[in-house]
Each structure stands twice: as structure tokens, then as C-alpha cells.
Amino acid sequence: MDLYKTILRRIIIMSSMEEVETEETVTCLHITLYHPCQEEKQVFRSLKFHKRERRRVDEVAKFGRDSNICHYNLMDTRVSRVQFTLQFFRQLNSSELGFEIKNMSKKTKLIVDNVELDYLNKIDLPWKCIIRFGDYQLLMQRQDGESVDYFETCFELAQASLLQERHLPLLQPIPECGISPSLVYSQGVRPIEMDENDL
Q1: Is 69 within a domain?
Q2: Which whole number is the average pLDDT over 122-146?
Q3: How many domains does the chain have?
Q4: CA 147 to chain centre
Q5: How far is it, in rounded angstroms, from Cα 126 to Cα 27?
Q6: Domain that residue 47 falls in
Q7: Is 19 a member of any domain?
Q8: What CATH number does the domain containing 142 carry?
Q9: Which residues, 6+ apart, have CB-to-CB distance to 89 below 8 Å?
Q10: For the FHA domain, which residue ranges apply (predicted)?
Q11: 39 burial class (0-12, 13-18, 19+ CB within 10 angstroms)?
Q12: pLDDT in tens, 50-59
């Protein structure tokens, strides 16, 4: 009798498990933020850190100064009312999901890795990239999911410059002659100063 009850219980459990729908995973954009004055100015104080926020795919996620318009508010008068937007999309003839980033600032260029975006320029967001505008640095990393109804964002705060952590070279201006000063000095050659009228 006990064996019969055990078998019956297993059958009920297995049939109930088959009826439960498989939960879809949701694409999450992990965003690590850095600003050199983040401690003094508290520019990120309105953002929720270490907490996934779910959004519908038809929402355009807006980042900027205006809390009435933007989902993600940056508390800084130097930031545009809407600095940039993120749109979730699916690639044409593909099941791959991704994000598109658009610069909405008329006064500040948006730099995605090494690509400069002017006002209203947009680009597909790479799987992992650094975004810069003004003194702001944002490391964005996409964690892929299956849902075509929702996406999520999750914020973290960096304690040091993201450019230094990734060991990216600081850009040095190259003079008109096209020779980098660091290259000249490393080879032991001293630059010759010339007046522009001598050229």
C-alpha cells in the first residue's frame, strides 16, 4: 500500500512539473558608472545600485538631467536634459537581441569605445563597451536573455577610472608633422623646434 502511495505521489509531482511553463531569461544591461567628482557632487544619487530594474521592450530608456523625462537621472547641471537613449531591438532575420544607443545632446559628443556620435547619431551597442561624455564614463556589458517582452538594467559604481582599469592609453595630441612625442623620445631623437614660417 505504501509503495502504491509513493508511486502515485511521484506521478502527481511529475505531471505538475510538466505543466509549469519554463521561465524565460531576460536580457540585462550591466552598467558600471564613474565620475571623478561622484563623492562630492553625488551625481548618481537618484540611481538604484545592485538592483535589477525591469523595463518593457517598447520603452526607450532615457538618461539625462530632467527627472520628468528620463528613467535614469544624472544630478548634474552640465548634463543635457536628455543625454542619450537606449532602445532594445531584435536583429533583422535573427533571434539575436541587442541595444541601440543614440546621442540626444546638442552640446556634447557621445563616445562609444572610439566612435564619436554627434547629436541624433546612433549605433548598435557592442556586447561590451565604454561610453564617455564630459567627465562621465560608463562600462556597459550585455548579459543575453530570451525574453522579447522585457529587458533589465543593473547599475554598479566604480571607485576608479574605467579607462585606467582597462589600461586604455590616454590620448596624446599628435603634432602636425605626424610624429608622436613619446616615439621621438623613446628613440633618443630630440625634436627640432621650427617656426611655422620655416615650413
Answers
A1: yes
A2: 94
A3: 1
A4: 20
A5: 14
A6: 25-164
A7: no
A8: 2.60.200.20
A9: 97, 98, 99, 100
A10: 62-134
A11: exposed
A12: 999 999 999 9
